[in-house]
What does this fold into?
Amino acid sequence: MTEAKSQINSWNAICLDTHPPEDSRIGRYLQHMVQSGVEVYRLNFNFFSPQARGAASTSMHGEKDARIDLFDQFNAHGGILKRAFNSRFLLGGALVLEAERALKNLGLDAEEPAVVHAHDPILLPLAANLAKAHKNWRVVYDRHELYEDSHTDRGINVATALEKIAKKHISGVVVVSDEHIEVTARRFPAAGVVSVPNYPSIRDYDKKIIEEKIKSLDNDTKVVISYIGSLDNSFDRDIDLMLKIGEQAAASEKARFLIGGRVADTKLEKKLQTLAQKFPEDFSFLGYVPRNRTVELTACSHIGLYLMKPDTCYWVKCSPNKVFEYLICGVVPVIRADVDRAEDISTSSLLFDRNAKGDEIVDEVMSLILDKERLKFMMKSAREQSKNFTFESVAGRYTEIYRTIMNRKTE
It folds into this structure.
């Protein structure tokens, strides 16, 4: 048994999340914990996705898992009644009973010490109630965003309200950027705080395919531009600008544009389909793309997009999975966002500040498509710089926060 295993495998880990089953950040966490000798139990809740109703969650990393589908129940009422029902359900005992039943069915011994690792603020009341019911359980909150700077619902910031409710039961917080530590420590003064950036795991990518792609790039190569991720046009991603880039790239016949993700907006879906019909060879709308296929498509791309709307209220330092995945795949990121380590990746990226105009960004991308020598240099630089941004270099911080909070009870 390794030293890491002997230090942490005396505790179980209970992962609570509402993300897609194949979410990369959660997947890396699960894989690390299982390989460290921890018994991991994942409860994956579906509150919001009608497409996911009835879908079974399957273990991908050796964890024991269960899918709890609450979409119809959680969305059973409208207006004030809906919000009242949702609040009572989240804050009361109903969700606790669902979780306790699922964990028992998975074979968890509730008497053993455990870390309840919540990845979503909506699940913090559940995590707190589980910790209250089990004296040797502790809560770690994986805070993916700075929710105090995010959207509100009718003037109420639901995420921060839920954080406040569960605050005294949170023993540790994991953030995605070192620059989030100070503000998070002020919000959770009794908790230990550590950052685990959204860096990709080197084991997920085929080195030979990526290096051959870079090596073979020449003046005759048709450049592949891709974006696979959120297509919610009402949120912070600038989907319209991405489509403008995609349309011009496809029209030039010098590049292909790939875009994928779930679409709930019929107007946007029609626009995507129209462009795909207009440029059948060079504009592809892929719809939902599974995680393994996303990795394959990214590895074969040359340029990748990560563009925020300049008028979004959520303009904060971020550590996007997408950007660091582009780097490890030898893909040149086109970024309009406040990303972590921007200075370190400046030679491999097209970086734009919040004031950059859309036409300026389009022109820079089109210029790069035509300059294969520069593109190849930047792709090589991206691949080289990615060595500084691997999950393997930061994974031990999960172990660190677990050890800290679980040993604290005996001090």
